[in-house]
Structures are given as structure tokens and as C-alpha cells.
Amino acid sequence: AFAKLRIKHRPLLAAISAAALRKLGEFAPQHLTNTAWSFAHLHVSDSPLMDAIAAGSIARIGVCNAQNLANIAWAFATLALKNMPLLAAISSAAMPKMPMFQAQHLSNTAWSFSTLGVADLPLMDAIASAASSSIENFGAQGLANTLWSYAKL
Predict the structure, then answer these.
(1) What gap in Å lies between CA 18 and CA 95, rounded to an integer?
(2) What would the 3-class secondary structure string for the chain be?
(3) Apex CA 71: angle with CA 69 and CA 75, to 5°?
């Protein structure tokens, strides 16, 4: 709720970060994604927490769905955190799941890798192929972000 409202209550964020670090082993992929997304949405970069989220995400990458993969990539790109082991894991997990990626997942993943300057050509080719067959499902922002992503790389 605080992230949606963009309320940066620093003491609460610090308490959540500390508690999350202690309980990260209990987090499912959705919990990792929601935590990363919320900190990114608030533009709060908590390095120890984000490093732990990256490690936890890598450990659970095989059970992440398309939305988890796209949102984790988006969170790290939004915070300008270029965690190459995480990005490599996202890429390898995303490619076989491309048929399950919705338009927003495709555009967010492309945007994230391009924003971080990671030219993962096999991933970008897989996104291009999936996007081409579902381009009618893209909204204006998705179209613009996808085009920008390919133009930037």
C-alpha cells in the first residue's frame, strides 16, 4: 500500500528490510518480486536487501513465472542495479517461457535489459519473436518501450 501511494516512510522501510533479510528463505518468488518492485517503485535502493533478493531469485528462478521474471528485471533496472548473475538467470529462465509472456512482460523485460545496457541478443531475439506474434496486444506504452529498447541496444 505504501509503495502504491509512493509514501517513503524511512523507518518502516528500514524495519521491513531488516525483517525481510531475516526471513528471505521463506519468500516465494512472488514475495521476492513484490518486495523488489515496491522498493523500486519508491526509488529506494537498499543494497543488502536487493543483493539478497537477487540471490533468492536466482535460487528460485526455475519456479518463477513470466510476471515474476519481468518484474524482478524491471525492479533492478529501475534502481540501476546491474546484477549480471541475476540477469543471466532471468534470461535463461525467460526464453523457454516466452509463449507465456504477455505484452507487458515482453516490453518490461526488453526495457529492463536495455536500460541496464545488457545486450543479451538471444533473449532480445526471443522477445522480438514473441512480440511479433502478439503485437496487437501491446498498448501504446508497450509499443513505445519495446521500440525504444531495440533502438537503444
Answers:
(1) 34
(2) CCCCCCCCCHHHHHHHHHHHHHHHHHCCHHHHHHHHHHHHHCCCCCHHHHHHHHHHHHHCHHHCCHHHHHHHHHHHHHCCCCCHHHHHHHHHHHHHHHHHCCHHHHHHHHHHHHHCCCCCHHHHHHHHHHHHHCHHHCCHHHHHHHHHHHHHC
(3) 120
What integer best gives the mean pLDDT of the chain?
A: 95
Q: Which band of pLDDT confidence, cut at 50, 70 and 90, is reported for residue 5?
A: low
pTM metric for this prediction: 0.93
| Among candidate residues 145, 144, 83, the one with its CA nearest the CA of residue 118 | 83
Q: What angle do CA 100, 145, 91 make, to 5 degrees?
A: 45
Model confidence pLDDT, tens digit, residues 29-55 = 999 999 999 999 999 999 999 999 999
CA distance 50 to 36: 7
> What pLDDT is attached to residue 2?
53
> Over pLDDT 70: what percentage of the chain?
95
